[in-house]
Amino acid sequence: MKDWCSVVPRGIRLTVQIMPNAKKSEVIGVLDDALKIRLHAQPIEGKANDALVRYLADVLDVPKSAVTITHGHTSKRKMIEIVASQLTPEKVRLALFPGISH
């Protein structure tokens, strides 16, 4: 099975499954090979995509410009690339799942 978080030449790639229209934006776990994220945004006019980019940039402490949706702009399942040489899969997991040892 493929991992939801992998290394790419300039940073990290994430596979995510979003659930829009949530009460708040939060990571809810991993299902199969995708990180599941609830988003407090509607899936219209790119609002959920914008919310996803903002959420990941905030949680991973990177600029929004470093977070790009590379696949799945109109789908709930998306591929995200984060250009940040300081990020490793372990740092991503620690940021997204604080308090859980990996």
UniProtKB/TrEMBL annotation:
Gene3D superfamilies in the record: YggU-like
Pfam family for this entry, one: DUF167
Superkingdom field: Bacteria
One cellular-component annotation, GO: cytoplasm
InterPro entries assigned to the protein according to its UniProt record, in alphabetical order: DUF167, YggU-like_sf
Similarity field: Belongs to the UPF0235 family.
UniProt cross-references to NCBIfam families, sorted A to Z: DUF167 family protein
Protein name: UPF0235 protein TSA66_10035
